[in-house]
Design brief:
InterPro entries: Cu_Am_Ox_Cu-bd (IPR049947), Cu_Am_ox_TPQ-bd (IPR049948), Cu_amine_oxidase (IPR000269), Cu_amine_oxidase_C (IPR015798), Cu_amine_oxidase_C_sf (IPR036460), Cu_amine_oxidase_N-reg (IPR016182), Cu_amine_oxidase_N2 (IPR015800), Cu_amine_oxidase_N3 (IPR015802). Belongs to the copper/topaquinone oxidase family. This protein has nine helices and 34 strands. It is mainly beta. The protein folds into three domains: about 110 residues, Roll (Nuclear Transport Factor 2, Chain: A); about 110 residues, Nuclear Transport Factor 2, Chain: A; about 325 residues, Beta-galactosidase, Chain A, domain 5 (Distorted Sandwich), CATH 2.70.98.20. A hairpin with a 2-residue loop joins strand 12 and strand 13. The longest helix has 26 residues. It is globular.
């Protein structure tokens, strides 16, 4: 081999080594971190939204201290209070009257006094009752006033109060004592002495006002998994209406299709060989029906959403702003998420948008299932909105916000990171067009949306509450249901009420109905209601008179009265229904916002039912009424335990008042029928189980407001689409060539239970 050849080979080897070193050095170098830019600040006066802000933990504590020192009666901490005690049940914000707030926000008036609403249970009185006080001003209270009669037209009977955690503890102790009277039956049916069984409440509690009798369903309890799919066939009826816990009684026992007077009678029937027993083994954690433990090791990470230059929205106190949107957000411990003063481009669109209630109504051939009509507001939709799991419940880089509440205790609790806010790329164009004739070009805009989300866990179900704000000026409200189904023990003709999903488990049919309040202020407070729909007319063809043509035309109607604007559930509704302003846009059409409902609701409870009036909001998919300060909510937390004499009956709101040029409220019901099936195990999936509604601009603007978005894309055949200056999508390769700064994963959601 010649020297020249050796030198050439040596040179090639050195070049190869140098290239490999460069590659290795490049791979080893961490990518640069993304540089966050501050989002543009909106032109809304700082601090105004605090008029809607939830109470701080310190404000709640101040209210408790004030009440303890100024009511003149002993108050026991609700976490250990007996029914015969007095206690503070809850403390929440007293939202000021709308007129006061608007004078402050729009007219330069004084800031309304900051006040709290305190709910107290007075069990240690000659006439036990529930009383509501407004306490203020905060942060240093100096007065309180009883508003119970003003709000409800009379005193609140004590039996209407929601069941407290302490009451459930005492009920469980009673059930455990009663189970000890049937030891051999329990050993045979359930491989149990009772201590590995857990009870699940039903509601309402009886058949008439004053009743407090609750069916409790018993399940095998397995650590680390949901017990809701493991019923043992045993249910008990507990009378817990007496103020003295020692006088509570077990009134009835149900097992596998038969009723007994007591657990002692159940035991006697078993020992006599007169009872058909289904012998169940204690489920094992690794094989129990409904286990959510992963069955495969983790795979490669999925796609990750991140903001290369930081969030494009801004969160300050209780207000979020994003590309023209401004929203004040909060959380009612009973009814859940509530938004106020929703503005787009500086104009108020919605004064209040709030969840009112979530109903779950079941069918079964077991007493617990067949009598269940959960009104989740009485349990606490907001209170049980726990910490969100970063990267699963919300995007990893979302903004997470703590919420404070005071319920059944004298000290506030904090649900950390229980509300999230993020910009969502839906991977769908908001609008686009590819022009393939005449001039050749492409124009479009990504559908990026601001999302405010909370998730409530209400016993077995998890509800995902979403409020979304689009670049087109539209508001989208959506709820998804997931979590565990509730179940009954499978026996007899069980499949008339659902599907069998396990050896002895009946997934019981039920409906989910949710109710919302939407106080729209479209170009001002005074609005009217207009409907539009299509009809066909048959006309002679103008250019060929011997022929006819079916021509669609638009039928418009202004609805004058509330009765006209109450649309029954599942009945046809006009396809276009809008809140209209007296003012017009550039094209001389009334500035309007359209309500578009997306729902698959089940059938409403028959009006002949003795408890129907307590959920009479469910009669209507949409009802529009005049706004009244004395009609702030469509239901009450007291309706659950006395649905036969409802504290608030929504049907009373509709009394045929005029709705032309008035301050109006839309009350919207959405929901779906759920017949559980095998694929609901372990959990119901969100796919196909989402409903909601849109608020969409309809001639409110002169054109689609998203044309002003800085995210718009346009390039023609005459341009270089790969040039960053001509096409912002071409800039992504450099703008997004950075590593997102992900905070360490942390979860503290188990600490507050």
């Amino acid at each position: 081999m010649s020297l020249k050849t050796v030198l050439i080979l040596l040179g090639l080897a050195l070049a190869t080594i140098f290239a490999l070193v460069c590659v290795l050095l490049t791979r080893g170098r961490s990518p640069r971190s993304c540089q966050h830019l501050s989002p543009e600040q909106e032109d809304v006066e700082d601090g105004q939204s605090l008029v809607f802000a939830d109470l701080t933990a310190e404000e709640m504590s101040q209210v408790v201290r004030y009440l303890q020192g100024h009511l003149g009666v002993p108050l026991v901490d609700a976490s250990r209070a007996k029914p015969s005690d007095n206690c503070i049940a809850s403390v929440d914000l007293q939202v000021p009257a709308k007129a006061e707030v608007l004078r402050f926000l729009d007219g330069g008036g004084a800031r309304p006094a900051r006040e709290a609403l305190a709910v107290l249970y007075f069990g240690s009185q000659a006439e036990p009752n529930v009383t509501e006080y407004v306490v203020g001003p905060l942060p240093l209270p100096a007065y309180h006033r009883d508003v119970t009669v003003q709000k409800y037209g009379g005193k609140l009977p004590y039996h209407r109060r929601p069941v407290t955690g302490k009451e459930y503890v005492d009920i469980n102790a009673l059930v455990q004592r009663e189970l000890k009277k049937a030891p051999r039956f329990l050993a045979a049916c359930c491989e149990s002495d009772g201590t590995n069984l857990v009870i699940l409440t039903t509601a309402p509690r009886g058949f008439k006002s004053g009743d407090r009798l609750t069916w409790f369903v018993l399940f095998h309890n397995v650590a680390g998994t949901g017990y809701y799919l493991s019923p043992v066939g045993l249910e008990v009826l507990v009378d817990h209406g007496d103020l003295q816990v020692s006088r509570w009684q077990l009134r009835k026992v149900f097992y596998n299709g038969r009723y007994f007077a007591s657990t002692r009678e159940l035991e006697q029937e078993f020992l006599a060989g007169a009872l058909e027993v289904v012998r169940l083994k204690q489920p094992q954690a690794d094989a129990v029906l409904g286990s959510m433990r992963p069955r495969r090791p983790p795979g490669s990470p999925g796609p990750l959403q991140f903001e290369p230059q930081g969030p494009r929205y801004s969160v300050r106190d209780n207000r979020v702003t994003f590309q023209g949107w401004s929203i004040a957000f909060g959380m009612n411990p009973n009814t859940g998420p509530r938004l106020f003063d929703i503005r787009y481009r500086g104009e108020r669109i919605v004064y209040e948008l709030s969840l009112q209630e979530a109903l779950a109504l079941y069918g079964s051939n077991c007493p617990g299932g067949m009598s269940t009509r959960y009104l989740d507001g009485s349990f606490g939709i907001g209170r049980f909105a726990y910490e969100l799991v970063r990267g699963l419940d919300c995007p990893y880089t979302a903004t997470y916000v703590d919420r404070h509440y005071l319920a059944e205790a004298d000290t506030p609790k904090t649900n950390q990171n229980s509300l999230c806010i993020f910009e969502h790329d839906s991977a769908l164009p908001l609008r686009r067009h590819f022009s393939d004739s005449q001039s050749l070009y492409y124009g479009g805009l990504r559908k990026n949306t601001l999302v405010i989300r909370a998730i409530s866990t209400l016993i077995n179900y998890d509800y995902i509450w979403d409020f979304m704000f689009h670049g087109s000026g539209a508001v989208e409200v959506r709820v998804h249901a997931t979590g565990y189904i509730s179940s009954s023990f499978f026996h007899g003709q069980g499949t008339d009420y659902g599907n069998r999903v396990g050896p002895h488990t009946l997934g019981t049919m039920h409906l989910h109905h949710m109710h919302y309040k939407v106080d729209l202020d479209v170009d001002g407070q005074l609005n009217s209601l207009e409907t539009q729909d299509m009809e066909y007319e048959f006309v002679k063809d103008p250019w060929s008179t011997q022929n006819t043509i079916e021509r669609p035309y638009l039928r418009r109607e202004r609805l004058e009265k509330e009765d006209q604007a109450a649309f029954p559930l599942n009945a046809p509704m006009p396809r276009y229904l809008s809140f209209v302003s007296p003012n017009t846009n550039k094209w001389e059409h009334p500035r309007s916002y359209r309500i578009q409902v997306i729902s698959f609701a089940g059938k409403h409870l028959p009006t002949s039912s003795s408890m129907e009036r307590s959920i009479s909001w469910g009669r209507y998919q949409l009802a529009v009424t005049r706004r009244k300060e004395e009609e702030p909510t469509s239901t009450s937390i007291y309706n659950q335990n006395d649905p036969w004499t409802p504290t608030v009956a929504f049907a009373n709101f509709i009394n045929n008042e005029t709705i032309t040029n008035q301050d109006l409220v839309a009350w919207i019901t959405v929901g779906f029928l759920h017949v559980p099936h095998a694929e609901d195990v372990p959990n119901t999936v969100t796919v196909g189980n989402g409903v909601g509604f849109f608020l969409r601009p309809y001639n409110y603007f002169n054109e689609d407001p998203s044309v002003d978005s800085s995210d718009s894309v346009y390039f023609s055949s005459e341009q270089d689409a790969g040039a960053c200056g001509a096409n912002p999508l071409a800039c992504l390769s450099s703008a997004a060539a950075c590593a997102p700064r992900l905070p360490p994963f942390h979860f503290g959601g188990f600490l507050n239970l």
